[in-house]
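We both want to read discrete structure tokens more fluently, so let's practise on a single case. Once you have written the record down, we can walk along the chain together.
***
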Amino acid sequence: MTSTPPRLLGKLLIETAVGSFLGDKRIRLLEAIDQHGSISQAARTVPLSYKAAWEAVDDMNNLAPEPVVLRSAGGRHGGGTELTAFGRRLIAFYRALEQESQGALDKLTGDLDQNGVLDTAGFRKVLKRMSLRTSARNQFAGPIVAIKEGIVDSEVSIRLDPELELTAIVTRESAENLGLARGRDVLAFVKASSILLLVEEEGRISARNRFTGIVVNIHEGPVNAEVTLNLPGGRHVITAVITEESVKRLGLAVGQPVTAAFKASSVFLVAID
């Protein structure tokens, strides 16, 4: 007696070159934000931690061509959130693509089973997507607008928004290997620990990148704190990890203007094919 193999259920994961951008959990988070208008309530619905929910929203807003979620300043668990029209279109697109993907998977597994070659474990390995994972908290996307070549290094300027431009320093060899050129889209990563926070712009530091924004969240830990700034234009945020002592010394608070500074050599680039 031949048993019917179990149905394979696919989970749609939309990835950039550096890992996941949209998946079931993030879509459910967006749907919950649309329903409740609260990031804390949406996080409980998914469920996700409050911190993980904000990180997911920040990642999507930074990588999407338009804002997905609008945020208002809040305290440790405060602040309102609103799903944008683009965010709603994103949900509809994902759900439609999810149905099509499952239909294609059902057909493919049925064809394989008819040919007597269905190997569920092996098939899952084939379907598993490889992704580049990074520990960098801050992810940005944009086109290269200028490259200045030196003897050893190249200075690469990336346009994030009409008001925001980021500079990275890479070796000439890396620039050639990545195929960097003006107009090419790249992803830029900056570790939160590489970012300095300044409450006074006149401080003299060697950091090439300086973004002034408004503090929208301070997530306090036993030793360090994550401080998130909303950057000009309202679409991008940047997060720094500093000590709790530094938070107190700088007098940081939600709603305060602060400058995030980081060296061009602290930026890691990935070319988008």
